Amino acid sequence: MATVANTFFDSVKMIAVEKGINEEDVFAAVEEALAKAADKYFNSQDFYGNFQAQMDRETGEFHVYALKQVVGEVEEEDLEISLAEAQLLNPDAAEGDTLWLPQDTSQLGRIAAQAAKQVLVQKVREAERERIYTEFAGRIGEVLVAEVKRFEKSAIILEIDRVESMLRRSEALRGDRFDKGQRIKVVIVSVDRSAKDPQVQVSRTDPRLLIKLFENEVPEIHDGTVVIRNCVREAGDRAKVAVHSLDPDVDPVGACVGLKGSRVQAIIRELKNEKIDIVRYSDDSAQFIANALNPAKALRVNLVDPVGRRVEVVVDDEQLSVAIGKRGQNVRLAAKLTGWNIDVRSEADKRREAEVAMGLALPQITEATEEAAPAEEAPAPAPTSTLLDVVKVEGLDAALADRLAAAGYPDTKSLYTVTAEQLMQVEGMDQDLAFRLIDAVQAHFGE
């Protein structure tokens, strides 16, 4: 018999209570560890068997037993005991019974304490992880103030309510610069029960952060008078928020902006000067789309394909660049906000289209055309690129310009609303060249 040090045994009970661990689970795990330690020790002494350990729940004393099955004829001495020998130890023993034979544990004191300590550490870790998961799993989407603790290569470690959380650098805003000890607002996006890293994952780019900031700053949203119908972000750069008032006497946009912009400016400062367009929601799709293109003013909204959710918006010539936005950002966010595929056209474009259509409808009639036999229709020419005549970008050659034309981008106008991701689908186009080409096109239009 051996005894685990009383101080350690007491600490097991104390930590189990503090961490909310079931005491019996700890003892059972310690017994299992002791059995494994005994198995390893006795095997090294050329004694192989099936070992079990038992720990006294009051004193911490433990015993190790070798389990042997009672048989008529012994074939494996380490696992079996003859009936005659068994009855010398226990007169009531019968064939098929299992005898628990006490083993000398005088050499197992230090090994037992170490095994018990390892089990305790593991159980504490498991209990902590379960506690964190239970506490935070129901708080996903909640905005909290976190303290910056340390910096790692790909993440920033924060502390929330004495629990470590992880802000991946990809989830931080472009303008975020933190100091150790600084307190920042984040939104909980996930909690992982099995993660080796901090279990609580937070973000500053998630749209839910912007929604919660509005709820905190605008009393009308907090009390339910004004409702946020949708929110989209290109985090750190620009966002659009669609709002609707349930009270006809309350202006939802004015409520969110606040007196002299005080409410929205507080949110903009928190998000490192991210531009925020507050859009009035409407059940009328055309009106909602027109509102979503703010600050551009739409002249007409034509629902081209209601089933496929395609729409054409016509704006004044001078409003085209505003409606599309830098690198197509304004129209892209409006499309995400409304759920419609938006094609923005200028009034001049529509006039030219009408003139062309009228010219085709009224062909010139001459004697030659009257007498001439109908000719076979010539095949449509392949798209011809005019990019090289208008913009000069290193890396853009005639072959790549032709491939762009074949992909539907023959001129600067077709590139005005394109994204780098779309251009990178064209063979020979990389990300750097795509951005330089987009910048050149924007500069050409005076963006």
Describe this structure in words.
The radius of gyration is 37 Å and the shape is elongated. Strand 7 and strand 8 form a beta hairpin. It is an alpha+beta fold. The strands form four sheets. Strands 1, 2, 3, 4 and 5 form a five-stranded mixed β-sheet that branches. A five-stranded mixed beta barrel has the order 6-7-8-10-9. It has a three-stranded mixed β-sheet with strand order 11-12-13, with helices on both faces. Among the domains are: 2-133, 2-Layer Sandwich (N Utilization Substance Protein A, Chain:P, domain 4), CATH 3.30.1480.10; 140-205, OB fold (Dihydrolipoamide Acetyltransferase, E2P), CATH 2.40.50.140. Helix 2 (23-44) runs antiparallel to helix 4 (109-136) and helix 5 (207-217) runs antiparallel to helix 8 (262-270). It has 17 helices and 16 strands. The model is unreliable at 1-5, 365-373 and 375-380 (pLDDT under 50).
What is the element layout, followed by pairings?
Blueprint: E1 2-3, H1 6-18, H2 23-44, E2 50-55, E3 61-71, E4 80-82, H3 83-89, E5 98-102, H4 109-136, E6 143-151, E7 155-160, E8 163-168, E9 183-191, E10 200-203, H5 207-217, H6 219-222, E11 226-234, E12 238-245, H7 252-257, H8 262-270, E13 275-280, H9 285-292, E14 298-305, E15 310-315, H10 320-324, H11 329-338, E16 341-346, H12 347-361, H13 367-371, H14 387-390, H15 398-406, H16 420-423, H17 431-444
Parallel strand pairs: 3-4, 8-10, 12-13, 15-16
Antiparallel strand pairs: 1-3, 2-3, 3-5, 6-7, 6-9, 7-8, 9-10, 11-12, 14-15
User: How many angstroms separate the termini?
Assistant: 86 Å
In terms of structural class, how would the helical and strand content be classed?
alpha+beta
Tally the beta strands.
16
Q: Which residue ranges are poorly predicted, with pLDDT under 50 across at least 5 consecutive positions? A: 1-5, 365-373, 375-380
**Biggest β-sheet strands, sense, barrel:** 5 strands, mixed
Helix content: 25-40%
**CATH architecture title of the domain at 2-133:** 2-Layer Sandwich
Number of helices: 17
The shape, in one word, is elongated
Remind me, CATH topology of the domain at 2-133? N Utilization Substance Protein A, Chain:P, domain 4
**Which radius of gyration do the C-alpha atoms yield?**
37 Å
Kindly report the average pLDDT value.
82
Share in β-strands? 15-25%
Give the name of the CATH superfamily of the domain at 2-133: NusA, N-terminal domain
CATH class wording of the domain at 2-133: Alpha Beta
